[in-house]
TrEMBL record:
Superkingdom, natural source: Bacteria
Protein name in UniProt: Bacteriophage T5 Orf172 DNA-binding domain-containing protein
Domain Bacteriophage T5 Orf172 DNA-binding: 12-83
Length: 94
């Protein structure tokens, strides 16, 4: 399966929350679009190629950190930080 989409983790340090989303566009363009509607500085902390199944999996994996029932914003928890670090490590060592 070709994965043309980008899954991104965008951090709002002021609220210690992270948005886990997907875009077909360049991640920087998505960040810029989100920043337009947010008074706090947003920061891209991780991005990886993926698909909607992967995004849905990540939302379920971190469901206990979800801020709203159906939203894409999560508390920037230890679990999310560890997942990002482990994923980076695995990709580097493939």
């Amino acid at each position: 399966m070709v994965e043309d989409n980008n899954i991104y983790f965008i951090l709002n340090r002021d609220t210690d929350s992270v948005k886990i989303g997907i875009t077909k566009r360049e991640v920087q363009k998505r960040l810029n679009a989100l920043q337009t509607g947010c008074p706090n500085k947003l920061e891209l902390i991780y991005a990886v190629k993926g698909n909607y199944t992967t995004e849905k999996y990540l939302h379920k994996l971190f469901d206990f950190d979800r801020i709203r029932l159906k939203g894409e914003w999560f508390n920037y928890s230890y679990h999310i930080k560890q997942w990002i670090n482990n994923d980076k490590f695995l990709r580097i060592n493939q």
